[in-house]
Specification:
Helix content: 40-55%
Oligomer: single chain
Number of helices: 15
Largest sheet: 10 strands, mixed
Number of strands: 13
Mean pLDDT: 83
CATH architecture of the largest domain: Alpha-Beta Complex
Order of helices and strands: EEEHEHEHHEEHEEEHEHHHEEHHHHHH
Number of domains: 2
CATH superfamily of the largest domain: Spore Coat Polysaccharide Biosynthesis Protein SpsA, Chain A
CATH class of the largest domain: Alpha Beta
Amino acid sequence: MDQVRNSPSELTLSASAAGTSGEGGAPTLSIVIPTYRRNDCVVENIKRLLPQIRRSDVELIVLDNCSPMPVAESLEAAFGPGIFEHLQVVRNAGNLGLAGNSLRIFEMGRGDYIWPLCDDDAVLPNAVDEMLAAIRAGGDLVYLWFPVVGGPAHRKPGTYPGLLEAMEAEPNLFFIALSSNVFQRTYFLSRLRFGYLYSYSWAPFICPLLSDADNRSNRVAIHAGAIAQSGILGEGERWSKLDACIGIRTLLELPVSRRALSCLRSSIDSFTFSTPRLFIDSLALGDGQRWQLFRLFVERKYGAISLRAAWWLMLAAAGQTLPAMTRRVVRLMEHVLNRRLLLDVEDRFARS
């Protein structure tokens, strides 16, 4: 296994590039798996991907966000050193966080299009063939969206002259599931600064396109065929709903037209989990930082001086002051409703 240090910030592990480049030396599709501390998930996805990527127009890259055990070691243990003939591993010198690692996908791939595959989403057997067929049939698309089983539902597949038309057709925030997205690399690289400017939004990867939402020359396509199964991890290991719902509302700070802002607000409202559900999550996590984040969510959603905000902020204050009593009340509600409300969860943001 060759080791080549490309820069002070990364370590690339690969063998020769044979079999990874297409016509003109660049593949049509780059599959990039950003990951942190989910080595077993990556190994399972590589097993699913290997039969699909042994072709000249596809490359596979694993972007290791400085996991405690290097992902390359887990891959070599599972497949042997020959695995690096079929993929490349890039290890960050430090943990860049969820946003930083998800934005690096645009710099890693050489393909015309980039598919970021979440490490905890299981790729389906014919995903690569379906994706390549859609790319070639679509012409000059800047963005393609595919459903992920267990993720946001789609209603109106088709090709649209711009992002706003697609967002008006789809009432949900369809791009929040990272594995659903396929990006035209050169377009997104040209506007990548918007991703970093709004890296706190929990969807920085779509900000380059959102910042140009009124441009009707940005053709986008929504597809019906699923490409991955969402969430192969347990409840306690997934990303936090509270973190996502706080972050996603900051997309409304993007400098876009009134029409784009209206579409974006509708999409965010359709995505955001219910306030009671987020209150329960905060109660389950049970530390001061999580309560502070819940209060921040309430203020952003309802406005700091509204009656609904006052009610939820008062309830949050009571929960923080008397956490044991609040938990007992919720447990009693669970008994009456015969439904589990209070989950034993942890702060999942650190797992990103």
